[in-house]
Amino acid sequence: MSSNVLIVGGGGREHALAWKMVQSPRLRKLFIAPGNPGTAEFGENVSLLPTDLQGLTDFAEANQIDLTVVGPEDPLAAGLTSRFHQRGLPIFGSSCTAASLECSKVFAKHLMDAAGVPTAQYRVFRDFWSAWDYICATGVPLVIKANGLAAGKGVFVCREITEALRALVILMRDRVFGSAGDTVVIEELLEGREVSIHAFTDGLRYCLMPPAQDHKTLSDGGRGPNTGGMGVVAPVPWFSGPENEAAARQIVERTLESMRYRGYEFRGCLYPGLMVTANGSKVLEYNVRFGDPEAQVYMRLLRSDLLEVTEACAAGGLTQPVDWYDGFAVCVVLAAPGYPEKPIGGSPIDGIERAESVPGVVVFHSGTKINQITGELITAGGRVLSVTAIGATLAEAQSRAYRAIGFIHFEEMHFRRDIGAYCQ
Ligand code: AMP
Ligand code: GLY
């Protein structure tokens, strides 16, 4: 049976999902809301925002959408899946209660405690002065986190007491992230290497994706401010077989079981961020969606039919294994000047076609648009393009991605030159 599919979102992650989705022989028509100039090559962009829950539900019903795949967390947290379910529309994405794993650090911490999922020691504070006294008494290092969603900016890793107290003022006194910072989690600082794991799940069964290593800081060598991710590698040579299996058992299985036990069955993509410490892997955070740019490398490595896998998760029937190609995928993000604080857009982009002539390379659009007057492709966001490459070895994938970048140009283009350099 052929299917009409709607992808929700408009960044590099969603372009990668669209690229893979159109390879399904079962796809009839693809829509992307709102999409970007890259996704327009694969389907019809629909001018609806991911947060327009009513608009998306009405659209899916009116256009006989057989499956909707959600990219970002906001529509999940706002309850898009229950609206779809009320109308009998299949959707790949967590319910709003299950999205609490990402939207509430306190919920996630309590669940991990109850389920025996390894994570950092922590305390929860709702009162400014109690938190202040605790920091003064405990000392540093420690990590202070806003309970709610804060666009990736609500986590403060503090090695000085003044930094910790300042973080507290930012979150609880100045309320820079509004109600997201009214409750804070203060936790032990974990030392080690970070890795992302992702699992497709139908709530009961799950299939692990290859581990991935994100590169979060803006500049080479872990310098500069944190970003949404400047590049990623999968699989990760230093985190293979036994570590991955232990993470599956101790983290993914226990989390899914505990969610079911609480009546919050989790369906979709579960993405725990881990710190691999001397005492094993511990969860730093949960996400209830594909990472961006992790999805870009996953779609390059996925051998199975994305439509079939996501449909099976949505329907509660993930009974077939999910297959992956051998080899490695690398993604290097090309960012606009001013990213992450205040990206400057409007610069013409050239060279994508030549970049894609390098073997194994596909370029996904993250923040681009068409200039309505000149018809040119221009920058329109912080992360502009995701340059991906596959290769038999990590070194081959890296060198292909960087060779491709040599052909791309926009004003003051910024990218890290060390994606994959610390992954051995
Ligand atoms: P989160 O949004 O909770 O993943 O935090 C963002 C980043 O802060 C992580 O990717 C880590 O680099 C860092 N981080 C968070 N929690 C801790 C922790 N307990 N110890 C060390 N680093 C942490
Ligand atoms: N790459 C990090 C994230 O998507 O949260």
Describe the protein in words:
The structure is a single chain. The protein is an alpha+beta fold. It has four domains: 3-92, Rossmann fold; 121-188, Dna Ligase, domain 1, CATH 3.30.1490.20; 193-315, D-amino Acid Aminotransferase, Chain A, domain 1 (2-Layer Sandwich), CATH 3.30.470.20; 328-405, Glycinamide Ribonucleotide Synthetase, Chain A, domain 4, CATH 3.90.600.10. Helices cover 30% and strands 26% of the residues. The protein contains 13 helices and 23 strands. The strands form six sheets. The protein has a five-stranded parallel β-sheet. Strands 10, 11, 12, 17 and 18 form a five-stranded antiparallel β-sheet that branches. The protein is globular. The mean pLDDT is 96. The chain binds adenosine monophosphate and glycine. Adenosine monophosphate (AMP) binds next to strand 7, strand 8, strand 17 and strand 18.
The CATH superfamily label of the largest domain reads: ATP-grasp fold, B domain
Small ligands present: adenosine monophosphate, glycine
Helical segment tally?
A: 13
Extended strand count = 23
Task: Give a short account of the largest sheet.
Answer: 5 strands, parallel
Topology:
Blueprint: E1 3-9, H1 12-21, E2 27-34, E3 44-45, H2 53-62, E4 67-70, H3 74-78, H4 80-86, E5 91-92, H5 100-103, H6 105-115, E6 122-125, H7 128-138, E7 142-146, E8 155-158, H8 161-173, E9 184-187, E10 193-196, E11 199-201, E12 206-208, E13 213-214, E14 217-219, E15 223-226, E16 231-234, H9 241-261, E17 268-277, E18 280-287, H10 294-301, H11 306-315, E19 328-335, H12 352-355, E20 361-365, E21 368-370, E22 377-379, E23 383-391, H13 394-405
Parallel strand pairs: 1-2, 1-4, 2-3, 4-5
Antiparallel strand pairs: 6-9, 7-8, 7-9, 10-17, 11-12, 11-17, 13-16, 14-15, 16-19, 17-18, 19-23, 20-23, 21-22
The chain binds adenosine monophosphate and glycine.
Residues 120, 143, 145, 155, 157, 187, 189-190, 194, 216, 273, 275, 284-285 line the site of adenosine monophosphate (AMP).
